[in-house]
Amino acid sequence: MVDRLERLGLAERRSVPEDRRVKQVVLTPKGLKTRTALLEEFYVAPEELDALDKGELETLVRLLEKLPSKPRLP
Fold first, then answer.
1. I want to staple 56 with a disulfide (CB 3.0 to 4.6 A). Which of 10, 19, 45, 52 is the partner?
2. H helical segments located in 1-74
3. What is the pTM of this model?
4. How many domains in the chain?
5. 45: left (phi over 0), alpha (psi -120 to 50) or beta
């Protein structure tokens, strides 16, 4: 995973001065910008949910609350 982040220019490995066997993974400026953009998107409602009125949203919440909190394994 870290190799892929490095190839994309999102992260880099750095040595730890106290123990050169240890590597830290640090986000690059591009990685920080990407992380910020992704986190902002978490708070944007999908268009389909945005189109529902208050009553529909309340019904959806009631239905979702009926679902088990832990998924069942087959």
1. 52
2. 2-7, 29-41, 47-50, 54-65
3. 0.61
4. 1
5. beta
